[in-house]
Write a structure and sequence with these properties.
It is globular and about 60 Å long. The protein has helices at 3-19, 28-42, 47-56, 62-71, 82-98, 115-130, 148-156, 161-164, 170-176, 189-192, 226-239; strands at residues 104-108, 139-145, 158-160, 177-181, 184-187, 195-199, 212-216, 240-247, 261-265, 270-274. The chain has 275 residues and is an alpha/beta fold. It starts with a helix and ends with a strand. Helix 1 (3-19) crosses helix 3 (47-56). The chain has eleven helices and ten strands.
């Protein structure tokens, strides 16, 4: 094995231990593109040296910077559309019917730059506008991510024109955002106040988050090994109330675990109900 391949292999092992992400053997280009700038700034010549530096200086913040760089993904408003329609037309009405007088709790796992939880908050607002007084106790969205810097950005609720253009209609932009400065918008306080951001590594315990009626874990599990994916899905089942719904990404499927989840066809889309 060449030195470059040994370097990459060592980094793959580090990253999977740190956050569960399993890099494919052909992903050297991805690592280079995401870490080159950071390694230049730190004067680090190889991935082996990077891993050694992280291990020898655990409090330097370098580990967090590397994990941040490798786990930050671009995301869209109302990604794939159908999950948010299923929320409005099925999940919320079912919750109201089965849980009178309770607050709806939603977990947006691996929320990245915040578009998903804010899209969920707008979805709840749209439901409430069409169904006045039905969701009596309102809703709470807990949005989690591994990246501290990403969560800090999310809490501001501010986005530039490039981010705004990715999936947001003009109608929703006008209704749910305030102009901060030319080319920069902020999510309105009423939408922001429904969302609580918390740091969570999906490899760690979820017990402190409490129980949820709905979990969105979309376009995340594709990065994990089969064993880690199964472990996450089992622990998410424990975090769901019986009958609660799990939403996965459009290209993700839940194979196995028939004792824990029931597949529900929504046409379009599939969701999973906790048994």
């Amino acid at each position: 094995m060449s030195t470059a391949n040994l370097d990459f292999e060592q980094f793959r092992v580090f990253l999977e231990k740190a956050c569960g992400i399993l890099l494919g053997e052909n992903k050297q280009y991805l690592v280079s593109s995401r870490l080159n700038k950071l390694m230049e700034q730190q004067g680090i010549k190889s991935l082996t040296e990077l891993v050694q530096r992280i291990q020898s200086l655990p409090r330097s913040g370098l580990r967090e910077q590397v994990v941040d760089a490798m786990t930050t993904n671009e995301t869209l408003w109302f990604r794939d559309t159908y999950p948010f329609e299923v929320m409005k037309n099925r999940a919320i009405p079912e919750f109201i019917k089965g849980n009178p007088g309770q607050r709806l709790r939603i977990w947006s796992a691996a929320c990245s730059s915040g578009q998903e939880p804010f899209s969920l908050s707008m979805t709840i607002d749209e439901f409430e506008r069409s169904n006045l007084g039905q969701l009596k106790m309102g809703a709470q969205i807990v949005a989690t991510d591994l990246s501290g810097s990403m969560l800090a950005n999310c809490k501001t609720g501010e986005y530039d024109s490039l981010a705004i253009a990715r999936g947001l209609s003009q109608e929703r932009l006008q209704r749910y955002f305030d102009v901060k400065s030319p080319g920069r918008w902020a999510v309105k306080p009423a939408i922001r106040s429904r969302v609580e951001f918390r740091p969570i590594n999906l490899l760690d315990s979820y017990a402190a988050l409490g129980k949820f009626d709905v979990i969105f874990c979309r376009n995340v599990l594709i990065y994990f090994s089969a064993q880690v994916k199964k472990d996450i899905l089992l622990r998410m089942h424990s975090a769901l109330k019986p009958g609660g719904y799990l939403f996965l990404g459009a290209s993700e499927a839940l194979n196995g675990l028939p004792d824990h989840y029931r597949m529900v066809q929504c046409s379009p889309g599939i969701i999973y109900q906790a048994k």
